[in-house]
Structure formats: structure tokens, C-alpha cells
Design brief:
The protein has about 425 residues and is α/β, with parallel strands linked by helices. It contains 16 helices and seven strands.
Length: about 425
């Protein structure tokens, strides 16, 4: 009887699994949180700001991997609870605190009972419940981890929660120096950061970017180490294709494991197996790339369209901003240098590109492939509704198809044929309580 196939350790977002995905890097994020928690003279929460699938939730759920037992996490997903009235919101906070205490083997019988009337809940939590809680845990710190805080802001806007709900959270931190707080917010809602004042100030915002090459290699190699090995060179090629985006790396790991499970005699994993996963990740991620494109403004789309066309002859070269301006001059949508620089700054801020002295490069090879196939100049208004299509537009469409083929070949061929005996050993920095 064949042995049962082991559980795939990778969890791409589309699985919507309760199992936590393997986690790499983010030491600097936890260092920033540790500094925030150990500065009680300046109460306030730390806000983790990141894009879709950047690992915000996993970061909070992995709190105990980086902090010792003197820190008690209390996680609460605001997206999974109905924020319909203030009493339910306050009770959800106490519920999260009690789950955190239970998971750390504290007896809850010493905590005060909930008052009978809803209008006393706020003052009860701040002035009775929390003081009794901290007299029980003594010198330990308790950290409220509020995921998707945009849901709280939306509930306030809709009138379901009081306008001072954010200020109330801040008052909890003011009254209890050993209470900490961390929040997450999607970067698409960055304009709402000011609404989190005074709970969050500018210096207490940490932006989650992509993973470094070393962090990507750790994520690809270490969870799979009991089953197969991946060479450092192959891991570097995958990092180049994914740009270190956590959700793309999870998909790569998932498909690599699937391929190994179909042929478990492969040890180490062959470069051919590594190459096979890239088209599968690209196909699975097309919807995510489209959403990223939809979030860009018109000038950012024009710049990326120009870049994708300029990469026709050499998909791996850097592009100078002056080349973008020159290319757009030949279209119906020219942009001056100032507009191009502003668009480039926006794209760089969103982690789509890197601008160096050598020029502009697209961070994610798979995203660049999608741009080559899908980035298009809009049809000029003068010819909208007309059956006549400019020859240049037709040529651009045809060129895009060829460009995709070229980039696929470049990405696949960048995976080397050599495989070392074992993956690099991981390093993890733990933040401990002071």
C-alpha cells in the first residue's frame, strides 16, 4: 500500500484555508512593533500598511513566533465580525482578550462580570475590566491585534458605531501602559490613515513590501526541506519571476510541491520541474494582475504600457524615463517629463517598479509578462465608435503577443541547470520582552 501523500505546506490565498501559510522574513516589522510596545510614554498603535495578499493577516497571526511569553496576543479579525452596534464591538474586544488569555493558560474566573446595561460597557471595559485583567497578568504585556481596521472606519462612516470609536481605543492605551495595539490596513485605503488619529501617528506606520531574495529562498526551501531541495539558483530565478511577492511565492511553492508529490522520487527537484511551475503561477495570478492594473491612474498605465513596449527587444534591460517620454510622443497620449516622474514615483511607491541610476525595471517578472500581453493604450476619443483602427494600434497588439513569448522564454531560461545538495539554513531574529 502506497504511503499517504504528505500535506502541502504552502497555502496560496485562493485556497482560503484555516491553516496558516509558511512565513518568511518581516523581522524588521516585528522590531518596529517591539519598539512601539516598549515605549509606553507615547501611547499609540502601530499600523501595518500593505497591499492585497502582502501577508498582513499572517503577520499578526505569527505574533508569538517572534515574541516571547511575556507578550500575550489577542487577535481579532474585524472583517469576520458584524460591526453593527457599539455594545457588540466592545464585547468583541473583551472576547479577543479572553481568547488570548485562555491560549496562555490563564483562568478567566477572576475577571469581572459583564454589566447588565449596554450603555455602561465602554466605561466598564476601560475602568474595571482592563485594570482587573492587568492585576491578574501582572508584568505581562497584552497586545490587541486588530486586522482590517478599514472595517471599523466603514462602520463609523455608516453610523453603526460612534464617531469617537478610534479615540476610545486610544483611551484604552492611555489608561493601561501595558496594553499594546497593532492594526492592519490595505494600502488602497491609505487615504484613510488620518482618520485613525490620535490612535496612529505618521511615525507609527510600517509599510509591508516584497520579500528579499534571501527571504524568498528561505520560504521556497525550508518548508519543503523534509521532502525535496531547491537550488539557490532556482530560488533566485523564482524570486525574479515573483518579485518577492508573498502570494506569488506561496503559489510557486504550492505547485512545486504538487509536482514533487506526483513524482516523489525526484530528489533534489530538477530544474525542469522548477521551470514548469512558472506558467501555472502566471495563469492563476492573471486576475490579481488585472486588479493591480485597475488600481492605477491613467498616467501610471501609460508609463507601464510604454515600458512594456520598450522591452520588446530586451525584456531584461532597464528603461530610462526619457525613453518613455520619447515613445509616448509618438502616440496620441504624450506625457511631459514632470507627469512621467510623478507616475514613476507612484509606481515605485506601490512596489511595481524600481528606479535606479541604471533606469527603470519592473519588479515582478510575471507582472511584466502580464503587462506585455494586456497593457494597451486607450482608443483615442476621436475614433471611438469608428470601425477604423490605427495601424500602429494593431501593430502594438501583435507586438504584445510576441513580447509575452519572449519574456516567458527569458524567465524559464533564467533557471539554471545546477542544483546544490541542500538549501541554505534560515535565520530568525526573535524579539523578546524587556
Amino acid at each position: 500500500m502506497a504511503a499517504e501523500t504528505p500535506q502541502n505546506p504552502y497555502v496560496p490565498p485562493e485556497l482560503d484555508s484555516p491553516v496558516l501559510a509558511p512565513f518568511a522574513g518581516r523581522q524588521s516589522a516585528f522590531v518596529a512593533l517591539h519598539q512601539r510596545l516598549t515605549t509606553p510614554s507615547k501611547p499609540g498603535a502601530l499600523l501595518f500598511l500593505g497591499g492585497r495578499y502582502s501577508g498582513k493577516t499572517t503577520l499578526l497571526r505569527r505574533f508569538s513566533d517572534f515574541f516571547d511569553e511575556t507578550y500575550i496576543p489577542a487577535y481579532l479579525s474585524l472583517r469576520e465580525m458584524p460591526l453593527v452596534r457599539d455594545a457588540a464591538w466592545v464585547l468583541a474586544l473583551t472576547g479577543a482578550l479572553e481568547r488570548g488569555l485562555s491560549e496562555n493558560e490563564y483562568t478567566l474566573s477572576r475577571l469581572p462580570e459583564t454589566p447588565d446595561t449596554d450603555n455602561k460597557l465602554r466605561s466598564w471595559l476601560r475602568d474595571t475590566y482592563l485594570p482587573d485583567l492587568f492585576s491578574m497578568v501582572r508584568r505581562h504585556r497584552v497586545v490587541l491585534l486588530l486586522d482590517d481596521v478599514d472595517c471599523l472606519l466603514d462602520a463609523v462612516t455608516a453610523g453603526k458605531l460612534p464617531k469617537d470609536s478610534v479615540a476610545y481605543l486610544y483611551s484604552l492605551l492611555e489608561n493601561q501602559p501595558n496594553l499594546g495595539m497593532a492594526l492592519t490596513l490595505d494600502s488602497r485605503r491609505e487615504r484613510d490613515v488620518d482618520r485613525l488619529s490620535p490612535l496612529v501617528r505618521g511615525e507609527n506606520i510600517f509599510r509591508l513590501g516584497s520579500l528579499s531574495p534571501d527571504e524568498s529562498a528561505w520560504l521556497l526551501q525550508t518548508p519543503a526541506a523534509p521532502y525535496y531541495t531547491i537550488s539557490d539558483e532556482s530560488a533566485a530565478a523564482i524570486h525574479k519571476a515573483t518579485g518577492g511577492q508573498p502570494y506569488l511565492l506561496q503559489r510557486c511553492g504550492f505547485f512545486l510541491f504538487q509536482g514533487w508529490a506526483a513524482h516523489p522520487d525526484q530528489q533534489p527537484l530538477t530544474p525542469a520541474a522548477v521551470k514548469t511551475c512558472i506558467p501555472r503561477v502566471y495563469a492563476t495570478s492573471a486576475g490579481d494582475f488585472q486588479r493591480e492594473w485597475d488600481l492605477l491612474n491613467a498616467n501610471e498605465r501609460l508609463v507601464l504600457t510604454a515600458v512594456s513596449r520598450l522591452l520588446y527587444t530586451d525584456p531584461l534591460r532597464a528603461i530610462q524615463p526619457a525613453e518613455i517620454e520619447a515613445w509616448l510622443v509618438e502616440t496620441d497620449y504624450p506625457l511631459d517629463a514632470t507627469a512621467i516622474k510623478a507616475a514613476v514615483r507612484g509606481l515605485e511607491y506601490r512596489d511595481h517598479i524600481t528606479l535606479s541610476s541604471d533606469g527603470l525595471t519592473v519588479n515582478t517578472g510575471l507582472w511584466q509578462m502580464w503587462l506585455l500581453e494586456n497593457a494597451r493604450l486607450p482608443v483615442p476619443r476621436a475614433i471611438q465608435g469608428s470601425a477604423k483602427v490605427p495601424v500602429k494600434l494593431l501593430l502594438a497588439v501583435l507586438a504584445g503577443v510576441l513580447l509575452v513569448l519572449l519574456l516567458v522564454l527569458a524567465l524559464v531560461n533564467s533557471t539554471p541547470e545546477s542544483v546544490p545538495d541542500a538549501p541554505a539554513a534560515p535565520t530568525v531574529t526573535l524579539a523578546t520582552g524587556g
